Recover the amino acids of this structure.
């Protein structure tokens, strides 16, 4: 009996050993991953009642601040512009975590970061709120323009400065008022959060960063880049109405069933899908994969702003057939990725990480942390970039993006629409062509009531309005702070 | 006064110190507010420990001195967290502690000879079966979809299954002891041999039925794990036929597989275990537990610096999480070690017990503590699907505390019957001392 009792003892030692091992895995070895997990709201929940720095735009408008109130909790987080910045600053709530910059830069705002906490040697002994103040790259004027242009439409728009990667405007509809979620009335906040969270149109999702849609013919700009690099830009494709099917992939036909062909310039202005498929076949899959890699479209995590959280966006893959890859079949990107792609072309092929946060400042205004523009790589040569810009400019003059043309500035741009199975639309504008200062990418999620032509007219009007307005804004606004 | 009680008193003082220190450190932490009103509660808790210690001195002076301080430390840690997470539970917890102490003293004072329990083994077994199946009966009669195994009496919820498990352990121990004595009698030729008697398997079949009821109607794999662990350990030690274990495990496995396919809630719990990230009903507590544990790290966030009430059920089935979060891996490992020590001491008592019934009872109780703690800690660590099992002694669940304290008293009573045999070295020193004296 004693011997068998020892068996029982050993069995318990073993299963408790498993617990020790697993506890170590969770608390020590796997702890780093868990702490950065997108669903992890522990840290921000802990910081809800703590002092918190303000968030300002590049032109000095305060868009999030903590004010003193009376009551059980004596600090309230306020968002003076409400839903205007809902997808930029996000929110912080007592029970539902947070989102946006509030969440991703929580350590700076709440002063958990050592560089923020110890701002000055003397501060160690002074009981003073040590918080970091964030200055974003978002411009209040651009954001207002974007919101006005997007009024009444479901979708997203993003405005990038190509030379620095700064996000000037970031707008996604539908959205929400973060003031409701940061409320001290926890019951009301919970009701609001649940309603927003279960809403089918997903108002809590920042579509600019987290909503991928098929980009279709927008991808042909990458195919054009590959063609130029492979010295195929003078190749003239014979005119056809369809690209033949192979045993593994279906045939590719032009949208209106017409025949088209020619050099890449005429393919671009005619949005000639069959022609691009032929070019893709000619280039081959390897170079297509290679250039997509250099543009950061495939392989690794999708491009986000420096502050975005790790989230399970599935990595984009190139279609296995070169012809289908060339016309962007199954290529799904977020508006930010699209803007980033065209900003790379606008910036002479130099790819810069999009950034939303420019500076972290101490309570006395001194700069603690500067997020400089971060050059990722030289995706394509300057010459190739210039040729692509020429193509895009031609596309606005005589091609499919004529709705973007402005009277006094030359604009380059591109559009994509008429997807099978989805009625969303894309439009990108770069202006001015000679030295692009702004890239605007717009995604409209068609609501089904509009026909495609109205939709195309709408998106062109929206994109043109944003581009025109941003170009006219005085740059001095930036020095307002 | 004998050594065991002195050891006990010393360790009890240590447990009291750790409890008060945890509360005090949390009280000065930033952002926590601890009411002054908790001081009388803590004082009363320490008073209850003192009374238990004194009653041990009176009625079980030679009982093991480690068991009670370990249980007290775990209970004190539990209280130190409950008073911050949900101070409203404190009063009820204290009333239950009071009841548990009364039960503890009653067992020590009233049950001088454990053989008295063997006389009432059948009623105890019946009580055990009824207590465990009460939730099932209620569920069937009221038709409500509620897997919680509690019975409401006004505002007080009682979970009879905890005390039912203890009754079953006593019954099973008594039955196995008589089974063994009858076997021995057959072997010695004192009674007629009766091979293939089907009644030998009745307890095992009964154990399987009870486990299946828990699985099917309570959808609770943790409770089933505890029952299986107790039955298997006791059966293995007493009977020692591997084939029995195989059959039993296969039968229980069959019940579980059958239930997974047919009961939606059980399926939900399984899904939460397989993928907690996308299951909001049961998964959220598990993912939050992982995040809280990860936030604690090696040394923990410190008492009062964690997000203690963030995990739902942090005072009951997830009571381990805030402890391991704020005291870190080191604190969590210390709690795990305490339970392991409890099991070890229990098994040690079983080997030293003079009667087989007492030995089997000690095994049953030790495994009851060990497996229940294991199952409760295994849920946040994703070893078992979510269940509603309270962490022994730590959880604020009163019924569980009551049952565990009664079981502890039984274990102490068993350890007390072990005669103290002086070490041979002590005899030697006495001899040499004498010889020096005469020289």
């Amino acid at each position: 009996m004693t011997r068998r009792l020892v068996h029982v003892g050993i069995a318990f030692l073993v299963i408790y050993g498993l617990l020790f091992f697993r506890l170590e895995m969770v608390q020590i070895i796997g702890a780093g991953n868990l702490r950065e997990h997108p669903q992890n709201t522990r840290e921000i929940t802990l910081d809800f009642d703590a002092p918190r720095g303000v968030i300002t735009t590049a032109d000095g408008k305060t868009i999030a601040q903590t004010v003193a109130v009376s009551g059980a909790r004596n600090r309230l987080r306020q968002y003076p512009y409400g839903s205007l910045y809902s997808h930029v600053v996000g929110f912080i709530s007592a029970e539902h975590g947070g989102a946006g910059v509030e969440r991703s830069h929580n350590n700076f705002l709440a002063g958990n970061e050592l560089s923020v906490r110890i701002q000055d040697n003397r501060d160690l002994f002074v009981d003073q709120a040590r918080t970091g103040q964030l200055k974003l790259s978002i411009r209040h004027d651009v954001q207002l323009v974007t919101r006005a242009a997007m009024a009444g439409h479901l979708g997203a728009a993003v405005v990038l400065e190509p030379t620095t990667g700064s996000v000037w405007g970031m707008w996604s509809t539908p959205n929400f008022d973060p003031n409701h979620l940061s409320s001290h009335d926890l019951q009301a906040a919970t009701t609001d959060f649940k309603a927003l969270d279960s809403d089918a149109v997903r108002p809590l999702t920042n579509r600019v960063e987290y909503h991928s849609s098929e980009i279709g013919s927008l991808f042909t700009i990458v195919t054009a880049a590959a063609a130029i690099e492979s010295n195929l830009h003078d190749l003239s494709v014979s005119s056809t109405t369809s690209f033949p099917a192979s045993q593994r992939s279906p045939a590719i036909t032009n949208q209106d069933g017409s025949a088209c062909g020619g050099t890449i310039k005429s393919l671009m202005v005619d949005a000639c899908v069959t022609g691009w498929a032929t070019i893709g076949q000619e280039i081959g899959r390897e170079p297509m994969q290679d250039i997509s890699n250099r543009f950061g479209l495939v392989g690794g995590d999708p491009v986000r702003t420096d502050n975005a959280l790790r989230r399970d966006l599935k990595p984009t893959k190139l279609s296995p057939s070169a012809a289908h890859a060339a016309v962007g079949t199954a290529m799904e990107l977020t508006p930010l990725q699209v803007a980033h792609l065209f900003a790379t072309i606008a910036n002479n092929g130099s790819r810069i990480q999009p950034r939303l946060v420019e500076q972290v400042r101490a309570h006395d205004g001194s700069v603690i942390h500067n997020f400089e523009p971060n050059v990722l790589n030289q995706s394509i040569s300057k010459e190739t970039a210039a040729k692509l810009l020429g193509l895009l400019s031609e596309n606005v003059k005589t091609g499919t993006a004529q709705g973007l043309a402005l009277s006094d500035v030359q604009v380059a741009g591109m559009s994509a629409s008429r997807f099978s199975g989805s009625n969303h639309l894309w439009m990108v504008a770069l202006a001015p062509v000679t030295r692009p200062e702004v890239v605007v990418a717009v995604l409209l999620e068609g609501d089904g009531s509009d026909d495609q032509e109205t939709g195309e007219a709408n998106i062109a009007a929206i994109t043109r309005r944003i581009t025109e307005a941003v170009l006219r804004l005085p740059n001095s606004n930036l020095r307002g702070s | 006064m004998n050594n065991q009680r002195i050891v006990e008193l010393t360790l009890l003082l240590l447990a009291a110190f750790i409890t008060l220190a945890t509360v005090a450190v949390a009280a000065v932490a930033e952002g926590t507010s601890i009411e002054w009103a908790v001081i009388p509660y803590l004082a009363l808790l320490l008073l209850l420990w003192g009374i238990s210690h004194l009653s041990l001195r009176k009625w079980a002076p030679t009982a093991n001195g480690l068991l009670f301080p370990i249980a007290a430390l775990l209970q004190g840690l539990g209280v130190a967290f409950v008073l911050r997470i949900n101070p409203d539970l404190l009063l009820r917890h204290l009333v239950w502690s009071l009841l548990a102490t009364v039960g503890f003293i009653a067992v020590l004072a009233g049950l001088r000879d454990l053989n008295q329990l063997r006389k009432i083994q059948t009623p105890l077994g019946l009580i055990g079966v009824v207590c465990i199946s009460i939730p099932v009966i209620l569920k069937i009669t009221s038709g409500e979809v509620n897997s919680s195994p509690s019975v409401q009496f006004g505002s007080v919820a009682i979970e009879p299954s905890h005390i039912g498990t203890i009754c079953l352990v006593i019954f099973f121990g008594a039955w196995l002891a008589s089974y063994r004595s009858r076997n021995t009698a057959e072997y010695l030729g004192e009674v007629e041999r009766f091979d293939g008697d089907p009644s030998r398997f009745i307890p095992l079949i009964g154990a399987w039925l009870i486990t299946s009821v828990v699985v099917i109607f309570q959808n609770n794999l943790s409770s089933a794990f505890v029952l299986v662990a107790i039955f298997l350990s006791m059966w293995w030690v007493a009977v020692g036929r591997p084939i029995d274990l195989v059959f039993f495990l296969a039968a229980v496995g069959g019940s579980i597989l059958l239930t997974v396919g047919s009961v939606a809630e059980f399926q939900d719990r399984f899904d939460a275990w397989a993928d907690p990230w996308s299951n909001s009903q049961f998964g959220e507590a598990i993912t939050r537990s992982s995040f809280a544990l990860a936030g604690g790290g090696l040394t923990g966030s410190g008492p009062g610096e964690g997000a203690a009430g963030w995990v739902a059920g942090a005072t009951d089935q997830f009571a381990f999480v805030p402890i391991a979060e704020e005291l870190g891996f080191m604190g969590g490992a210390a709690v795990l070690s305490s339970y392991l020590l409890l099991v070890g001491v229990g098994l040690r008592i079983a080997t030293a017990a003079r009667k087989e019934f007492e030995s089997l009872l000690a095994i049953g109780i030790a495994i009851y503590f060990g497996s229940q703690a294991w199952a409760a800690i295994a849920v946040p660590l994703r070893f078992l699907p979510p269940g509603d099992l309270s962490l022994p002694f730590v959880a604020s669940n009163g019924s569980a505390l009551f049952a565990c304290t009664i079981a502890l008293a039984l274990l102490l009573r068993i350890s007390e019957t072990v005669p103290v045999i002086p070490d041979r070295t002590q005899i030697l020193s006495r001899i040499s001392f004498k010889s020096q004296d005469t020289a």
